[in-house]
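Re: the pair you flagged

First of the two:
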Amino acid sequence: MTSSNLARSLFVPTVVMALVNLVFGLVTVFWQVPTLTGAAIALGLFFIGLGAANFMTSTAVGAFDAEFAPVVQALKSVALLQLAGGVLTMILPHTSLWVIVVGSLVLGISGVLTILLGLRVKDTLPIDKDWRIAGFVLTVAGALIPVIGDLGAKAILGVSGGGALIAGIFMMIGALTVRSDAKKIEAR
């Protein structure tokens, strides 16, 4: 059973993760004619936001118990991957090839790592299922980018933004669940 302190500490980072996903997803929905440069910068900022949110999560989990040290290290690794991918997406030449390669690798690898983290903390952290679902969605988005990326910037943003919207919804549900769990634990 999770303590209410751990559940409370996970609430804010989970909300931040959800908001990063939702904001990026909504931007991609309403951006009608993106350029490849604009898409690269938006994707880079999205990755940097994800990295920051994962770093916040690692800090929240690490402050709770030394038992979670491997999870904290894995979260920091995912955060560094996303931060590096964000910077690379913005500084590499804004060609379809680079945006597709970096975008698909960052989404795919960080998605798989998030799934594995969710499996590692199964029944230990209250957001394990949300990590697995969000990781799966981002992995699929990362796998689809090379398939449809040649259609242009709108296709790249559509796939990555669609995945971000779905992941954001599940992460927001996870945040609300974590908050509810904390209140239930405190009521006992």
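Second of the two:
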Amino acid sequence: MPTRIAIACDDIGFERKEELKRYLVEEKGAEIVFDPVTCPEEGVNTFARLADDMAEVIQRDVCRLGIYVCGTGIGFTCQINKHWGIRAVQVSDPYSAKRARLSNNAQVIGLGMRVNGLPAMEMIVDAWLDEPFDFATARENSKRNLLEAKASDERNLVKPDYVAWNMGFEPDEA
């Protein structure tokens, strides 16, 4: 079964998003299930709405991973992190991308068009995708941190009624 991924961008990141989308489909065998920006103009001043939309797609379990491309990847990740259960990180190097997934089970990465070129972004995506979080082999500290993150979300955020999975805080039930 292919990895299902949400992808979005602003006007600055549109062309790079299109290049990454091709890479994800052709080289990684991914299925793009959310791609709302079909031309640069649709990405102008929409990062907050797109963060809301991508968060909901992930919370509803349409897919469990998302990528956003803009100038730096910072603003979008700040915005999407306001949603219950979402862990998003701006990454600019493969090691940070790998650790975002292995240590925090981050579902979303923000990539910066003004930070990295396409080859570097492909390496970042590979590092993030190729070693998914595994509760059986994860460090105990990482698993405890995920439970603390869940407790924090429950204290500080409203969990939408439509959340359809455990958001990666705990192992999926068999």
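The mean pLDDT is 96.

-B.
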